[in-house]
Write a structure and sequence with these properties.
alpha+beta; 17 helices; Beta-Lactamase; Udp-n-acetylmuramoylalanyl-d-glutamate--2,6- Diaminopimelate Ligase, Chain: A, domain 1
């Protein structure tokens, strides 16, 4: 609490109170409020505390009240509120005179209100005032952030400082990149290995010289300000002016330009990655860029995922927001602790590398389930699809994993697969058999399914549909029943009939592979 006596008396119900003594002390600060219940209360009173009392503890001795006022004043108390009418009908004159002498406020409290009414009113008023103050400060902070985070203001800031200083100047980033140059110095002259410590002084390159001030935020180097004055000696005032200019630049570069520099570094890293994935360039450059940013991607087995939005008409901004949601979901989900994701924007898709944090292989099933859940929880109707590679053990297999994601996307589109999470293992057979001729596929399907196809068309279609869903779900009866919206016993019954007709055993791997090939060929035949 931080109210003056004057401000406190403007708060209802203290508006009904009267300042009857020590009026010159109405600027004293009230930091807390307490109720006086003992004569020795002064020994426990804190600075800025205001006491409320009925005068019971001092009703028999006005002189003791005077002594109490002196002690309270010495302790830094804010004032004394007395409710008259119960033990005192009026303040003794000796008390009034002493309060006036000490400029110690005494307030006559309204009889019809309790002390808690006054205390609550003061606390609520202070709470409202603090809330308003916080809101005001927050609004100011937002405005400062909006000004500071606009990247297009950096060039204007450089030009403004250059005009103020009145000398040629240049600003060089921490990595040697030239951020601004309004001098006759060449890029080679500016790209010197300047000292990284924040130190002011003259630096030389050939016959030219400049006054350099290092730009550093705490322990992080941001770059250098180089001023090229046309005078031999600088006064302390001019050096101080250059230092002030450096402080302004340091502030803006710390809060404004850092995001630009990071975005530039991220673009460089993505360019290295794109050249490696698309053209087979060296992986070492990408890994060096990643490690320079503190990203140690390949800590163990990894799996790659390409995320793509089916809706091709989606704008770039909406596309970016979709991928941003995926990144946030995968980074914050409780079940993502077994792997760590690194995400890169590659044109109209997001390429992610998920590296395990464990030492016993990659948790492929966990990743697949998380991706499936995201699509299920997504409120957008844009249709995000995830294409995953098979797990890899070594960094050199990164391009192979990327190619597998691309092949999974191509085959999924060719076969018009409805899955939102499509694994490379799912389409591996399709990848192997895609070049078989149409007659070969037709003959094989007819040979395997002939006993079913010779039955009644409605019956055969129903049984083939059941068998297809069963094979697609890796032989799981319960999952097949869910997708067919029938009881699992019905699925079991149908499978027994199919087994008898086709002379297959669903427990044998060879028979399952035959049936998997049949339905893969049927998918090819539908789209050819």
């Amino acid at each position: 609490m931080h109210l003056t006596i004057r401000e406190a008396l403007a708060i209802y119900p203290l508006t009904e109170a009267k300042l009857v003594a020590g009026k010159q002390g109405d600027s004293r600060i009230v930091k807390s409020v307490n109720v006086m219940d003992a004569p020795d209360i002064a020994d426990w009173t804190k600075s800025g505390e205001m006491l409320f009392t009925t005068a019971f503890a001092m009703k028999d001795s006005p002189q003791e009240t005077v002594n109490l006022l002196r002690k309270l004043n010495d302790r830094g108390a804010a004032g004394l509120g007395i409710k008259l009418g119960r033990f005192w009908t009026e303040l003794p004159q000796i008390v009034v005179e002493e309060a006036d002498r000490l400029h110690f406020p005494i307030i006559e409290m309204p009889f019809q209100f309790t002390f808690s009414d006054g205390m609550n009113a003061l606390f609520n008023a202070e709470y409202r005032r603090n809330t308003e103050l916080l809101q005001t400060v927050l609004e100011k902070q937002k405005k400062l952030m909006h000004v500071g985070l606009k990247q297009d203001h950096m060039l204007t800031m450089f030009q403004l400082i250059r005009d103020i200083l009145g000398y040629p100047m240049a600003v060089v980033g921490a990595r040697g990149q030239i951020l601004y140059n309004a001098s006759t110095w060449s890029p080679d002259q500016l790209a010197q290995n300047w000292p990284s410590k924040r130190k002011s002084g003259w630096v030389y390159t050939g016959k030219d010289r400049a006054y350099r001030i290092g730009l550093q935020q705490q322990e992080e180097p941001l770059g250098h300000l180089l001023v090229m004055p046309d005078v031999l000696l600088l006064t302390a005032v001019e050096e101080g002016l250059f230092q002030q200019a450096a402080d302004i630049l340091m502030f803006h570069m710390s809060y404004t330009f850092r995001s630009f520099v990071e975005a530039s570094a991220e673009r460089d890293m993505q360019n290295y990655l794109s050249r490696y994935l698309d053209k087979g360039a060296g992986l070492e450059e990408f890994m060096e860029q990643a490690e320079a940013r503190g990203l140690f991607i390949f800590t163990g087995a990894f799996q790659c995922v390409v995320a793509k939005v089916k809706k091709e008409s989606l704008g770039a901004e909406a596309l970016h927001e979709n991928f941003k949601d995926v990144k946030h979901y995968m980074e914050t989900h409780a079940k993502s602790s077994n792997f760590r994701g690194y995400h890169f924007m590659l044109k109209d898709r997001m390429f992610s590398i998920y590296s395990t944090t464990q030492g016993d292989g990659f948790p492929e099933e966990d990743l697949s389930q998380l991706l499936s859940k995201y699509e299920g929880n997504s409120a957008t109707g844009d249709g995000l699809v995830f294409y995953t590679s098979s797990p890899k053990a070594k960094p050199t297999a990164l391009r192979e994993a990327y190619m597998e994601c691309g092949e999974t996307e191509r085959m999924g589109s060719l076969l018009q697969l409805p899955d939102r999470v499509l694994n490379f293992e799912t389409i591996e057979f399709a990848h192997l058999f895609q070049h078989l001729s149409t007659p070969t596929m037709e003959d094989y399907c007819a040979k395997i399914l002939r006993p079913l196809l010779e039955k009644d068309p409605e019956y055969s279609q129903e049984m083939i549909r059941t068998l297809e869903v069963f094979i697609r779900n890796d032989g799981q009866v319960s999952e097949a029943a869910k997708q067919l919206f029938i009881h699992r016993n019905t699925v079991t019954y149908r499978l027994e009939k199919i087994s008898d007709l086709l002379q297959v055993d669903f427990k044998k791997v060879n028979d399952l592979l035959k049936l998997k090939a049949v339905f893969l060929f049927r998918q090819f035949l539908q789209v050819r």
